[in-house]
Design a protein that fits this description.
The complex is a heterodimer of chains A (about 475) and B (about 550). Chain A has about 475 residues and is mainly beta. Chain A has helices at about 1-15, 80-90, 160-165, 310-315, 455; strands spanning about 25, 35, 40, 50-55, 60-65, 70, 75-80, 95-105, 110, 115-120, 125-135, 145-150, 155-160, 170-180, 180-190, 195-200, 205-210, 220-225, 230-245, 250-265, 270, 280-285, 290-300, 320-330, 335, 340, 350-355, 360-370, 380-385, 390-395, 405-410, 415-420, 430-435, 445, 460-470. A two-stranded parallel ribbon of chain B has the order 1-2. The chains are: A mainly beta (about 475), B mainly alpha (about 550). Strand 19 (about 230-245) of chain A pairs antiparallel with strand 3 of chain B.
Chain lengths: ~475, ~550
């Protein structure tokens, strides 16, 4: 009996809150934690920023904001209870949460230099959607478009290709896209046998064939017009190749690409006048819908004795995409002539995936040394073009040492979302950065996870992160 | 005698255990190892949750956990025997299978055991990596669920067992579909599934007059034992090349070059391309390629088709072959592609770690090492690799990394595609490689140019090889290649090649002339090449002349 009581007491003690160590050695260094949440700025409605103390046997963190103080830590992980985290965020809003971390190695505790997590006044759109896919080359198996509630750790599968595999189809799903970050009007592609583009309008879904006569491929890279029922796409002849030495691993090249507009109401494709010498891709609208921005490159075949694709294989580094813009006439649903916005080829750079800020004044794009597939280019960074002054901000604070790509804005323009491979160069993770009212980008933080080790063990990439203001609708198209 | 009513079941227990030991451990220990090599089990909530996504997730999770023990085939065999015998006794007790009746409980035992040993090459492309253990584990659970039926009153007991049987059959058939088990491999499963129906009316057998006689029981024991053994024996995939490939894979990973060569040499039938390439890797590492390249017959066959499964090299040993030939980017690529299609595995993770270390991708290697360090049997291996992350010079001293690392460092970047053809890519890429400065790489390139019979590439590689091996005699097979091309295409000999410096032995030239004299008249008579090849093999089969003339066209998969 006595033994049982001791055992029970031991179990209860081990379940209790960790205590701040009394004796320790002090270090003036900032602790090494994963994910790196030191001195980041977060929205006041984000889930707990759980982290691990690198290399520690045990750790205890003391988090303080205003008069709220929380002590937590189990093993080498700090997992903050959601209710306590919310109290910390509320107390730290417009200021910061101070964190003091103690780590234990070989029974000796170290107290590290305290760091802050700054809490911005502005919130972030609550829902984040992304595709989960292995960082594979050609093969795909289990793909899903998921939605994460940023205020908690809840993740829901919106659509998975396992649904269609039950019917014997091995299909790829991609390019989820929304009109004004509102999933009431959205679409995504299903590729392969019995595939098509699933268009959801006011919650009603229908499957469309987006490969029409005269198009070089089915429509890709969608961009909904902010007000009209028009979607801009590109159609691309694409090829995949593999690096034999570089860490960039995969190279995806277009040998031809054109813009096209899709009239949703009339289910009709509206061709966009184009010069065949130019490849045009990655369309995106200005918030007022008056302009369509996109990337375009021209490539002059260097060896006429081989095919264009063979020639591109050798000279893949000579393809540079510049930023262009066309005016949109809503009355005729037509695009005007192209205008060069930013000539990146002149500085040996290439732009992809532009996105205009909600106020229409800034344009984010991914920039790399060449080509159009920056997700695999370790030199790729997010840059910001000021559409009024034409100046480029390299956003050094938010970029990492590996590939940063697929940028997008929150609807209030205060948060930049991106897919980054900064952790290991291979697996994309979602990073979020604060863009303040003074036009300063802050250090990006990784999408928080309930178990901070998840990001290190999870074998899929987060692809095409997009914020939405509401939950995604239930997918209703049946095969 | 009443106390001994289960004696046939007791004797069968011993016999079944012995048969299973022979079939699994003695005959198929490399197959068991391969099963665990093709899966990954990570302790923890996240991994468990990931398994729950599909129906039957807890069984998948438990199967993956137990399948780790196949790393030690003896232990794994004992585990499998335990699972099957628990199922056997659960059935015996549940259905009161006393006397001769216990023989019918052997049927699922035979079915499950046969399903483990009959996969053949399908083992590399399993869509259900837990395949070896989960069906047995599921059947054991079903057998145990039958037990309450024994102790319930009559209609309820039989009703319970009938329901369990029905659910088992439905779920089993569903699993066969979702695991995409080829139809040619399904019979053992059908046998297991539908044999459960036989147990339900087993009480009726008590009405047979002589059922309880000892000689009937003894006869049933003999018949059941013979059935289990023969069924598994005939169902087991016994192809020599397949078994040699499995063995060589393990030996290559451990850099046991002599043993690799021995396995290739001991092949009684024709080798596959995989065996040929494994052996060449070993010869290169031992430095005996030039003298032993044609010691074994170069005539190769496609992997034997089994249950309609056509295997591609990139799906089986492609990543390892790419790695050992220094094409580490493609080794990594196919590990990733195969992980996507067939699930992550410790075997693939190990190659991905080695590739990441060679590529200098430290954080990526750490990610995979972190995963491996959580596994039951690869934590030590993972720990050992960490030293290569800290000090890349140590790679040079590791026989598994050494050559790959040097080839990788001696190459420039380009973008290309292998179109899923491992051997073709290696031949095309390495035989035409320029700017080679590494002696071993130069030998590899020379070998591939001889394999492709690309004469300009051969001369180019020979010059590089001779330059990088200055002062050393030219090995016999390279001399043979020089002689054949010098005779057949004299105009192709580069002007800058000093033939006298190669010191071609007169006997090589004479041997070539004898080969021509022996074969050309036969060919001129219209005798087909295969017949001529057969007639001349004994005398000339171990030369490059013979390979060049009769063997340079083969199927690549």
């Amino acid at each position: 009996m006595k033994k049982s009581i001791y055992l029970l007491a031991l179990v209860l003690a081990s379940c209790g809150s960790p205590k701040e160590p009394k004796s320790f050695t002090e270090s003036q260094k900032t602790p090494e934690i994963f994910p790196d949440y030191t001195e980041v700025t977060v929205p006041a409605n984000i889930a707990p920023l759980n982290f691990m103390a690198n290399g520690a046997d045990k750790c205890v963190a003391v988090l303080t904001a205003g008069n709220v103080s929380v002590v937590c830590g189990q093993g080498n992980k700090v997992q903050i209870p959601e209710n306590k985290w919310k109290s910390l965020l509320a107390a730290g809003k417009g200021g910061s949460i101070g964190i003091t971390l103690y780590t234990q190695n070989d029974d000796a505790w170290t107290k590290w230099k305290s760091f802050n997590i700054n809490v911005a006044d502005e919130e972030i759109d609550r829902y984040l959607s992304y595709r989960l896919i292995e960082p594979s080359y050609v093969a795909y198996e289990d793909l899903s478009i998921c939605q994460r509630d940023l205020e908690s750790f809840e993740e829901k599968v919106f659509f998975s290709n396992t649904e269609t595999r039950k019917k014997g189809y091995n299909q790829c799903i991609n390019c989820h896209s929304y009109q004004n970050a509102d999933p009431k009007n959205m679409l995504f592609h299903i590729r392969g046998q019995e595939g098509g583009t699933v268009l959801i309008q006011d919650g009603v879904a229908r499957k469309l064939n987006m490969k029409r006569d005269g198009m070089i491929s089915a429509a890709v890279y969608p961009a909904w017009h902010p007000t009209d029922q028009v979607i801009a796409f590109s159609t691309n002849t694409t090829r995949q190749l593999f690096h034999t030495h570089d860490n960039d691993k995969v190279e995806v090249q277009d040998s031809e690409s054109h813009l096209i507009l899709y009239d949703v109401e009339h289910d009709a494709m509206i061709p966009v006048e184009a010069d065949s010498a130019w490849m045009e891709t990655f369309p995106t609208w200005s918030p007022d819908g008056k302009h369509l921005y996109y990337c375009s490159a021209s490539y002059t075949q260097q060896n006429m004795n081989v095919s264009l694709t063979r020639d591109l294989m050798t000279n893949y580094k000579d393809v540079h995409y510049n930023l262009f813009v066309r005016d949109y006439d809503a009355s005729t649903k037509t695009l005007g002539p192209r205008r060069l916005l930013l000539a990146l080829d002149s500085i040996g750079q290439s732009a992809t995936l532009p996105r205009v800020s909600p106020d229409g004044r800034k344009l984010l794009y991914a920039s790399g040394d060449y080509g159009c597939f920056h997700i695999w280019h370790s030199d790729a960074d997010i840059n910001l073009l000021d559409l009024e002054t034409g100046t480029i901000d390299p956003l050094t604070a938010l970029n990492g040492p590996k590939s940063d790509s697929y940028p997008s804005w929150s609807t209030n323009g205060r948060w930049i979302i991106m897919a980054s491979r900064r952790n290991d160069g291979n697996f994309s993770r979602v990073f979020i950065a604060y863009y303040d009212r003074n036009g300063q980008a802050h250090k990006a933080f990784e999408l928080p996870q309930q178990d901070p080790e998840f990001s290190q063990t999870f074998m899929k990439s987060y692809n095409r992160p997009e914020l939405t203001v509401t939950e995604l609708p239930k997918y209703v198209v049946k095969y | 005698m009443k106390n001994l009513r289960y004696w046939p079941a007791i004797i069968l227990t011993v016999i079944l255990a012995v048969v299973a030991w022979i079939m699994l451990y003695v005959q198929n220990s490399d197959v068991l190892y391969c099963f665990q090599d093709g899966q990954l089990f990570i302790p923890g909530k996240d991994f468990f949750r990931q398994q729950l996504i599909v129906p039957g997730g807890p069984f998948t999770w438990a199967g993956l956990y137990l399948q780790q023990y196949l790393y030690k085939p003896a232990l794994g065999t004992l585990m499998m025997i335990a699972i099957w015998l628990i199922s056997f006794w659960a059935l015996v007790i549940s259905f009161n299978l006393k006397g001769a009746k216990s023989a019918i409980a052997c049927i699922p035992f035979a079915g499950l055991m046969a399903s483990v040993v009959n996969t053949g090459y399908w083992i590399f492309i399993l869509k259900a990596p837990e395949y070896a253990v989960t069906p047995s584990l599921f059947f054991m659970t079903v057998s145990l669920l039958m037990l309450p039926g024994r102790f319930l009153k009559k209609p309820s007991g039989i009703a319970w067992q009938s329901i369990v049987t029905l659910v088992f059959i439905v779920l089993g058939l569903h699993w066969l579909k979702t695991a995409q088990v080829p139809y040619g491999l399904r019979f053992p499963f059908y046998l297991t599934l539908f044999s459960t129906i036989l147990f339900l009316p087993s009480e009726l057998l008590d009405r047979i007059k002589f059922q309880s006689k000892w000689y009937i029981s003894a006869g049933s024991v003999v018949l059941a034992s013979a059935f289990v053994f023969l069924f598994c024996w005939f169902k087991a995939y016994k192809d020599d090349a397949y078994k040699a490939e499995l063995k060589m894979t393990r030996l290559i990973e451990d850099a046991r070059w002599d043993d690799v060569i021995k396995v290739a040499h001991s092949m009684s039938g024709k080798a596959t391309r995989e065996i040929w390439m494994f052996r060449n890797i070993a010869l290169l590492n031992k430095g005996t390629m030039g003298s032993d390249l044609y010691k074994d017959s170069p005539m190769t066959v496609l992997p034997k088709s089994h249950a309609g499964v056509a295997i591609h090299m990139v799906e089986s040993a492609g990543p390892l072959i790419y790695f050992m030939n220094g094409q580490t980017r493609y080794a990594y690529r196919w590990c990733m592609e195969n992980s996507v299609e067939f699930g992550p595995s410790v075997g693939r993770l190990k190659i991905m770690v080695m590739c990441a270390i060679i590529h200098g991708e430290k954080s990526l290697a750490e990610k995979y090492l972190n995963l491996l360090s959580k596994t039951k049997y690869y934590a030590t291996w993972a720990q050992e690799q960490k030293k290569y992350l800290e000090d890349s010079k140590l790679i040079e001293m590791n026989p598994t990394y050494r050559l790959s690392s040097r080839i990788y460092r001696n190459s420039d970047n380009k973008v290309d595609s292998d179109d899923g053809q491992c051997e073709r890519y290696l031949m095309q890429t390495l035989s035409t490689r320029t700017g080679v400065t590494d002696p071993e790489l130069s030998e590899l390139c020379l070998m591939y140019s001889m394999q492709t019979c690309d004469i300009p590439a051969f001369w180019q590689n020979l010059i590089t090889y001779a330059m990088l091996h200055a002062g050393k005699p030219l090995p016999i097979h390279y001399q043979e290649a020089v002689v054949i091309y010098r005779n057949l295409a004299p105009q192709s000999v580069p002007e800058n090649l000093d033939m006298s410096a190669l010191n071609i032995d007169d006997s090589v030239q004479k041997n070539f002339e004898k080969m021509v004299q022996a074969s050309i008249p036969l060919i001129n008579k219209g005798i087909d090449l295969n017949t001529v090849a057969g007639q001349t093999y004994k005398k000339f089969g171990r030369t490059y002349f013979w390979y060049n003339m009769f063997c340079s066209a083969y199927d690549i998969y």
